[in-house]
Specification:
alpha/beta, about 40% helix, eight-stranded mixed β-sheet, about 450 residues, five-stranded parallel β-sheet
């Protein structure tokens, strides 16, 4: 097997399936050193990318336009791949069980357009066993070929962190595994074209499990902080003050309470729970953490309504501005955003919410959730807010001063105070209260 040699000599081709937050940065990075074809079934996305527009903002328009990456929506291009990398989403269904339809559909397409001797490597998050026990049979069925003889398999879990300019594709450690040591070593060399550090896992199942555990442990730690925040709220203690004090200890982990959304922490634990249940294993801690974190949206909505009522607001006649709708700061991704949940819950009470987010993908937000965004330039004209809700700590929001927030508020003090809901505890409570505002922070 000399797959890597063929690729670096320009004789071989890498095909990346799925050009989203994971696949696009990887495809562009590999294209600096090899011939790469990026395939996505979405004609709309392919047209954008061909025009040099990066909707993920992970690569950037300039770098995309300068790249030698060939972009197509023709699945037949898969047949050119000596290495085929699968980077499609793996969400959960409404019942929170794994939705493997995208990864299985990709496997079928690979089987229909499979080059003899190709190495297929999956980056999509799955539970242990999916790659070998579900994806391989799908490829074999569609191709009539045999794994280990006609093609080979590997797994390398993605670790893309949207919006993170520090932990990038190049400098993170990339886990690589294969059906045998030879395949694993070939893949390690291929990924070495784009990343600085590669870790060779002992097996495909180990790599699959590592991906789930690295996000599940974060989910559990955040759940502890969220449960603590709810307890301290009943005690009248500032959670931020408690955590700031706790974090002075050398072995503090640095976790903070907050909303847990997105396509990793809010999803991956369900894959682990599902696999554990199949084997009749216990997953009580993981399941409880999910329940706590999923319940934070309701808790925050209750706190918003409570603070508004305490300050004698009528609610339905109030002007409420909601700052931040993406699932994390400084990124356009609105998938599985818990901020969306808060807006929807407040609307169920008949409240009118004006949503502001300079980063959010406006079209995706309306298409997926029916939520319209204010033009960010209109923020300068706000002066009638009865309630300001800050849900995401975008840099532009963190830069707001107490005077800026006071300028946003309605001139109703002292009849009733305008309320600031600071979910990410970005602002100085004392400074806001000195300016006549009521404050609540998670």
């Amino acid at each position: 097997m000399k797959t890597f040699d063929r690729i670096v000599n320009g004789e071989g081709t890498i095909v990346v399936i799925g050009l989203g937050y994971v696949g696009l940065p990887l495809a562009v990075a590999l294209a600096e050193k090899a011939r790469v074809i990026g395939y996505d079934y979405s004609r709309e996305k392919v047209c954008l990318l061909r025009d040099g527009i990066d909707p993920t903002e992970e690569v950037g328009n300039e770098a995309l336009r300068a790249s030698s990456l060939k972009i197509t929506d023709d699945a037949a291009a898969i047949a050119e791949g000596d290495v085929v990398i699968v980077a499609v989403p793996t969400p959960v269904k409404e019942d929170m069980t794994p939705d493997l339809s995208p990864v299985l559909a990709a496997s079928q397409s690979i089987g229909e357009h499979l080059k003899h001797g190709a190495i297929i490597v999956y980056e999509s998050t799955v539970y242990p066993g999916v790659t070998e026990e579900l994806c391989v049979p799908e490829i074999e069925k569609a191709s009539g070929k045999v794994c280990g003889t006609d093609f080979y398999i590997g797994y390398s879990p993605e670790r893309i962190n949207p919006g993170d300019k520090v932990h990038t594709l190049k400098n993170i450690c990339k886990i690589v595994s294969g059906m045998n040591d030879e395949v694993r070593d070939e893949l390690a060399n291929v990924y070495g074209l784009a990343v600085d550090h590669v870790y060779k896992a002992g097996s495909i199942k180990v790599a699959e499990a590592a991906k789930l555990l690295e996000n599940t442990q974060r989910d559990i730690n955040i759940a502890l902080m969220n449960e603590s925040a709810m307890m301290f709220n009943t005690m009248g203690i500032s959670t931020k003050d408690v955590v700031d004090a706790m974090d002075t200890k050398w072995n503090a982990l640095g976790f903070r309470p907050g909303l847990v959304g997105g396509h990793c922490i809010g999803v991956d634990p369900y894959y682990l729970i599902y696999k554990a249940n199949l084997g009749h294993a216990r997953s009580e801690l993981v399941s409880t953490a999910r329940q706590i974190n999923n319940g934070m949206s309701r808790f925050i909505v209750d706190m918003i309504l409570n603070r508004m009522i305490v300050e004698k607001h009528s609610l339905k006649n109030d002007t409420i501005y909601f700052f931040g709708i993406t699932f994390k700061p400084n990124c356009p991704d609105v998938r599985n955003s818990r901020s969306v949940d808060i807006v929807k819950m407040l609307e169920q009470y008949g409240l009118t919410i004006k949503v502001i987010d300079p980063y959010a993908d406006k079209e995706a937000l309306y298409r997926e959730h029916g939520i319209e965004l204010m033009d960010y330039e209109e923020v300068k004209t706000i002066s009638d807010a009865d309630c300001l809700i800050f849900s995401v700590n975008h840099d532009v929001f963190e830069a707001y001063s107490a005077d800026t927030l006071a300028g946003f508020t309605a001139d109703s003090y002292p009849q009733n105070k305008s309320v600031v809901i600071d979910i990410k505890t970005m602002y100085d409570r004392t400074a806001l209260e000195e300016r006549g505002m009521a404050y609540w922070g998670l």
